[in-house]
Structures are given as C-alpha cells and as structure tokens.
Design a protein that fits this description.
The complex is a heterodimer of chains A (226) and B (840). Chain A has 226 residues and is an alpha/beta fold. In chain A, 35% of the residues lie in helices and 28% in strands. The radius of gyration of chain A is 17 Å and the shape is globular. With 840 residues, chain B is an alpha+beta fold. Chain B is built from 24 helices and 21 strands. Chain B has a six-stranded mixed beta barrel with strand order 2-3-8-5-7-6. In chain B, strands 12-14-19-16-18-17 form a six-stranded mixed beta barrel. In chain B, helix 1 (3-14) packs across helix 10 (299-336) and helix 22 packs antiparallel against helix 23 (803-829). Classes of the chains: A alpha/beta (226), B alpha+beta (840). At the A-B interface, helix 1, helix 2 and helix 3 of A face helix 1, helix 9 and helix 10 of B.
Amino acid sequence: MPKPLLSLTHVDLSLLSRAGSVHILKDVSMSVAAGETIGIVGPSGSGKTSLLMVIAGLEPVTSGEIFVDGEALHGKSEDALATLRRNSIGIIFQSFHLIPTLSALDNVALPLEFRGIPNAVALAREKLTNVGLAHRLDHYPGQMSGGEQQRVAIARALASGAKVILADEPTGNLDQETGKHIMDMLFDVRETHGTSLLLVTHDRSLAKRCDRVIEVRDGKLSDQMR
Amino acid sequence: MNFRLWLIYALRNLRSGLQGFWILLTCLTLGVSAIAIIGSLAASIDRGLAEQGQPLLGGDLEFSMIQHELDADQKAYVQALGTVSEVTTLRAMANANGKATLVEIKAVDQAYPLYGSLLIDGETASAQVPDDSQSVLVDPLLLGRLGIKTGDTLKIGSAPLRVAGLIAAEPDRISDGLVLGPRLLMSHAALKATGLVQPGSLTTHRYRVKLPGETDLKAAKNLIKAAQEKFPKAGWRIRARDGAASGAERFVERLGYFMTLVGISALVIGGAGIANAISAFVDRRRKSIAILKCLGLQNRDVLGLYMTEVVLVGFVGIVVAMLLGALAPLLLKSLFGHILPLPVSTGVNFGPLVFAAALGLLILGSFALLPLARIDRIRGADLFRGFVAGDTGRGWTMNWGWFGLSLTLLALAAGLVIANADNRQVTAMYLGGLAGSFALLGALAFLLIKLVTILPRPRQLLLRQALGALHKPGSASFSVILALGLGLSLFVTLALTDETISRELRSGIPEKAPAFFVVVVRNQELPAFKDKVGDMAGVTAIGNAPMLQGRITRVKGIEAEKITPKPEAAWALRGDRGLTYAAELPKGSELVAGSWWPADYAGPPLVSMVDEIADGIGLKVGDKLTVSVLGREIEAELASLRRVNWRSMGINFVMVFSPNTLRSAPHAHVVTIEMNGGDEAQVVNGIAAEFPSVTVVRVKDALATVSDLLAKMLVAVRSANGLTLLTGVLVLAGALASGLSLRSYESVVLKTYGASRRQLLIAFVLEYGFIGLVSALFGVMTGTLGAWYLASYLLEMPFVFSATTALLTAVLAMLLTVTAGLLVTWRALSAKPAAYLRDP
C-alpha cells in the first residue's frame, strides 16, 4: 500500500472560550492518498472547518498526530508550519480571501516570490491564464466577479505546486452555474496535477463527485460513504 | 530577509493611495515640521548674523571703551590695523516745543559706515551723516514725540541742532544692544557742541576697523588676541563680526530652544496618534495578514512587509517636513524680510533638518512597533472564523521584546535631543517630565478603564451604553485620553505661563517703584538737582546712589580673561560695569553670606557682590577681587554676598564697595524720583530744561520696552500652544475616525432593535464627555505643576494659578471631544443599514 499523503491519528482539538473548554474534534483518524479527492460533509458546527484548520497547521491539535507529505505537524514552530503550507498545501475559501490591495497577478505571485521562485511573475501569469483570466491580470479583487475571484484563489493555491488543496465551501458564495464551473476546474486539477483535494461542502451531490465522502458529526468522523 | 520583496509589495499596497494614513501622516508631519522649521529658521538667522556680521558690527573689529577714549598708543595701534571709524554712543534728552524725550545718540565720523549702507528717507543711495556741528539725522519716531518736522530745530544738551533728514536704515543698529529711545545720528563736532561728554558721563567710545585684504574671521580673532596681549590693562571690549549681535543671537537661540522642546512634545503627543493609526491599520489589514499566513508567509515576512509600508508612509511625512523646513527661511525672508529686525540667510540648513528627520523616524519607530507587533498574533485560522474588531484572536499580551525595542528607540530620541541641547540638565528634566506625564497618564487611563469594567453596571441604559463603550474591544478611549490629556497638560502649562508673564507685564511696576531713573547727575549738581526737582508737583521722594564704572581684572589673583564663568555670569566680566559704594545694605538686597561692614569702616577695601554672579565667576566670601576704576586697580576682599530683588526697582549694583574705597574718586550719581500724582511729562520736561546734561529714563517706558520683548515671547508661547492643541485634536479625530465603521455597525444594529437617534446621541455625548473630563482633569493637574515649575525655576516670576484657565481648559476639552465625537457619530447614525446587515 502506498504511503498516504496525509494522515491524522487520534486527533483531538479542544478550544478555550469564555464559556469554558469546547471539545471540537474527537479522536479523529483518517488518511488521504496522493491524488485522492475527499468530500467532507456534516451539519454546521460539527467540526468540518476545524478539521481543515488542523490539517493546514493553522490550529494546533490538543492531542494526536498529523503528517502531511511525510512531515509531522506536531512540534513544528509557527514559521516551520508556514513553510510547510507554502510548499505543500493550497487553501481555497468560501469568501475567496484575496488581498484587496493587490492585483490578481500580484495576489498569485506574492507567495511564489516569498518562496524565492525566480520566475514567479511569469508563473503566476501562466496559472491565471490556465484558469481563463489572462485578460484580468491587472484587475483588483473588487473589480472582479465572485467566480473570477475564486478562480484567482485557485490559481494561487495551485501556483506553488500544492500537493493537497483544502477547499472550504469553495462554491458557497457563487451561483449554481459558476459554482459548477469552479468545481470542474478543481477536479481537473486532480487530473492534470495529481493533487489531492479535501472539499468541505453542504452539497451532497457535489461531495459524491469525490472518491470518498466523510461525514463529520459532533467532532467525530462517522460512516464513510460513496 | 526579503527587503526587496517587502519594499515591492509595500509599494504595491500603497499604489491605491494613502487612505487610512492621513492621521499618521499629519501627526508625524506636524511634529517633524515644527522641529525642522524652528531649527532651520534659528540656523538661518544665526547664519544671517554671521554673514552680515561686518555691516552689523560696523567693521571687522570693534574696540569699545565705556566713559573714556583710547589713549594715544592704543589709538595708534588700532589705526595701524586698517581703516578706522570712530563712533560714540550715549543716551540723552532731546528738547523741542517744551517737550523732552530720551534719545539714543550716535556720533560718527565721515568713514561711517565702513560696511553696509546708511539710508535716508526718500533717497536710494548710501548717505553720510552731515559733517557739521548744527545738523542731525533722526529716527522718524522722534518727530511725533517732539511735535517737529524735518528742517526744524531741537536741542540736545546745550546745542541747537537742525533735523537734516530721517534715518531709513542704519546698518549697525542691532549691535548697540538695548535701545530705549529713538536714534539720533550726528557728527563728533555736533556731539562736542552739546557739552554732554563730561567725565563720568555714560558714553561708549567705539573704534571700528575695516581690515585691509585679509578679512576672514580667524584673522580677526588673531588680531583680538594680539591686541589683548599688547595692552592687557586697556579695559576695552573687542568684538569680531561673530559677536556683532550676541544679544539677539542668544535670544533667538533660547526662543528656538523653547520652541524645539514644544515641537518635540507635539511629536510625542502625536506619537499616541501614530500608535492609534497603526493599530487601526493593522486592524484593517487583518484579513490580508491572515491570508498571507495561510499562504505560508512567515511572521518575519508579514511583519517586514507591513513595517516597510508604515516606514514608507513615514518617509513621505518626513520628506514633506524637511521640505517645509528647508523652505521656511526663504518664505520668512520673502514675506517678512522687510520688517524683520534680524538678517535671515536663505541657504538650506542640513543640520536641523537631519535632526528633525532623525527624531521623526525614532518617534515613528518607537510608537509604531508595539501596534505592529500585533501582526505576530494574527493567525491564518482567523480567516475561518469571524473577526472581532480589536481582538487578535488570542487576547492581548505585552510583547516585552518589542516593548524593550520601543523604549530603546525612545531613549535614543531623548539622547539625541539632550546631546543637541545647550542646557542639557533642563532638557533632561523636561523630557523626564514629559515621560513621567506620559507614564502617569497611561496608568491613569488604564486604571480608569479597568475601574469602569469592574464597577456595577449602571441601571440607566444610556449610561451603561456610554461606559460600556469605553472598554469594549477596539475602543480608542485609552489612546484618546493619553493624547488629549498630554495635549491639555501642555496647553495648561503654556496657558498658565502665558498668564504668569501677562500678570508680570500688567503688575510689573511695584507700588513703591520710582517713576524715573536719572543717570549721571554730577556730584556738584546733585544738591541743586534735589532742590529743584523736589519742588516739582507730584514728586514725593528723591533717592541717589554714587555711580562709577569699573572692570573686573582679576579673580582670586587670576586674570579675568583666563576665567571660564558660568553663562549667566559671563556678562559681569565683559568690559566696564557700574558699581557703587554704600555704608548700609541697599534696599531690596538681602545678605545671604558674610557680614556687612560697619558704617564707619576704615580698613582695607571690601566689596559685596550679588550671590549668583559671585558664584558664576567662582568667588566665595573671603576671596580677593581686583577691579580697575578710572585706571586705578583696587584689590578688595569679598565681604558678603547679597540676593537682590531686582523687581523692587530700587538702585542696586552687582558690586557694592565699602565707602572708604571709592568716596574720594570722582563720580556721579544715579538718582531715583518717586511720584504720587502730578504730570510725569512735566517733570521730564522740567528736568530737561534745568539740567540738560542728565538723562531721564521713565520707568514705564523702560518697562514697556522689556514688555515688548516679553510680548513677542508670548506670541511664541501661544503659537506653541496652538500646535500642541492641534496635535491633540488630530489624535482625537484619528481615533474616532478609525472606529467609525464599528460605530456605524453598532448604530445600525441598535436602531434595528428600536434605539432612537436621540438615545444614541445621548449615549455618545456621555461617552465622549467622560473622556473629555478625565483628560481635562489630568491636563489641569499636571499642567499646573509644569507651569509652577517654569515660573519658579526658569522665569523666576511669581506663579499665577488661574481658575478661569483651568475651567476653560475643562470646557474646551469637553467641547472638543463631544463635538468631534458627535461629528463622527452623526455619520455613524446616518449609515445605511443595508450596507452593514446584508451578508456579503
């Protein structure tokens, strides 16, 4: 059996709030193979987004272990986690989260440049062209439609050669047709780049396009469905 | 480090403009500009005085003697140096139409002026003083005082003189020091005809030298040294062109120093605005910061990127301030050059500009670091959850490393200011006071806000809403109280100082003060003077004291030239000074050391000195002091030290000798005339008619001249005050503006749930009123303390507390905060709900 790209073993996540400690993820174990697509479903507040956050190293787990591309997340400094994200993980948000003061091209080029990639701007231009935005390079996020902004976000996630893409309801703010177009694009990425995809969604039909579907309920992973 | 990328992306971020940076920019630019402009102007005047040194002094060198002329040897020596122009100055009374007024006479030869041009009203070419004994040129001011016109005759001493023309410009006016009356220019022959120059009269004989060829300052200084070595006992004062206007120079220096301290205070108060603006900037950029962290940028890079952006904006402000500073002398000269009494050089003064820029950068750094350090605590995970304004997601904790760095930058700024100051002790104390006020006010604001959080919640909804707003996340109340409180402290300090100086001006003449000082009443005419003047209407008492001129030549056996006195006592060693003898301790004097000699003392010479002058030249009771009086060297023992209340307006001299030392020397008297009722002008006219050789100085006129100088200082104090208040208001406006979006959101939500505009307005007024009140209370307390210190230790005037000023400050603070608050609130209340309530 090939080594998984991503694995979680007995992961627990508790967060302190003013009302006390909240146990968000409970004994979560799972693994994702390279190129695999997984749909994550579940009711609001069940822990889907938290699951993505711990995988991205944005939230330290309370206990358990996570490995991404062979590297353990636990014990890593914030900067080391940032480097791991930069090299291996792409994140796509429901609200796109582009930097409003930078053009589409700069939004994609910036992480590449900080990574020290010599032809960052050319690569960013190429990725934006790949998502059909060659005519929008110098536009600011505020000057683009939701679908276009999400395509910039995808180009940004792919540009650094991410091995896994974590997508948190990427079509939640888009109309049905644009949403379908964006999802086609994400699934194409798997075909063309071999990138794994973890897709948080409320849309079960969308989830069913994935290789596997995981349901999160009350912080636990329940039956895995197809 | 990715400096290049930080710069590129900071520049890209700034492409869309400087929105959100205006308060930072204004606070920084205002403070740095004030320092740059003041420094640049002071340096320009300093340089102008140096460049114009020759015309201002009237030569490359000036040898001056009080009361007597150079002897033949000295004159020959001076004449061998170059072209010489002889000038004699003295004060006298001018009479015409039965009126008399004090005038400043300057008698000159045909070589005058050696440098620069004398201009006569209506003529454009450089003129000369008429070379006869019947004509004078006069200051136009004199015409009005005596009711005469050009061509009329006035009388000086015993000579009738015709007004041949009006003086439009006198090149060396500034080098004559304090001028109490209008100028009169005449020939030496005319002065001789007046009969005023008698032994004991207060004439100053000046010999200006235009050096041939080599005229650089160093050469002139070498000549001074050589002259002093050649004639060590001459008792002359020799000045080169750099000493032409030392009085004006010192005044400009002190005023510049005071204004620089105010500018620094404004910059520090603006620092609170800078901190607040950067805090708001970090809040605005939180989403971008979180995105960058999600994209894998390390903390160092994110921080570097935004710090670069702040520094770039800071540079814009500093460059603007430096440009203003560089242009200030040119603007001053082109707008006010024709009325300025001082020459202004228009070249760029890099020193003060670099000083201002360095201070600006250090203050920017020290106030920007802590708010920027919050970037470290913003997490990528925040993108997945809602942001709460002002909440970094992990709670606020002090970042001690950054705090230390901030303090280091502040210490560097303080060190720079102190290193650049003449009076380092006072500067250090001032900065210490500023830092203390800052810390105290910070602690007070923190405690008050804490207190509000732990107090039981008021039942009254609007009060609860208002107090709750003081400590909610994102509230700017801390920085507003800090900045406004500090601004008001300085405002009260300056306003009370203004009050102290103004009161001093209004009540400057004590009850028992004489109406006139009359100088140089000759020994033999004193009895007649007392008789005649004593009979005049309104005259109640006439006092007199012997007056001689003498020069300190040795201190404890060491030549006076080799002594380095404290700055405040240096004048006592410069040339001839007035001195007297007395059997009894003079009125207005208090003995602070040693003992007074018996009335019939007949032993070796004894002298009593003013304590701070004795201390300034290193003398203690029992030490020996040598004074040259009328060419005779007298060695006296310092018998006592006196503290003199100069405000008593009595006759007091720095040096008082035992009577047996000087009684037999030829001398004149200084006389005081006290009046109760009667017409002062009549007395002046009467004295001038009967005793044409004496000079009457009206105390009110002399005080008016000094008041005029103090009034000019008041203008500076008031403009400084305006600057600090403006900075405080800017900080307030900035803090309120940065919270506008959150306020609008709150208003919309509250209105949605039934709150009326009126209710919201009342809650806002209560909130801002509380902030204003706290700031005002602190401002009045610390400001009063500051003004008391200034009055007691620097101005040496009785401190005046004005309840009106205190009350006005409180009202002003409340008005400012409530008005500014309401302006912002009005916008918040007018916000359209849809824009805030609709999901994106």
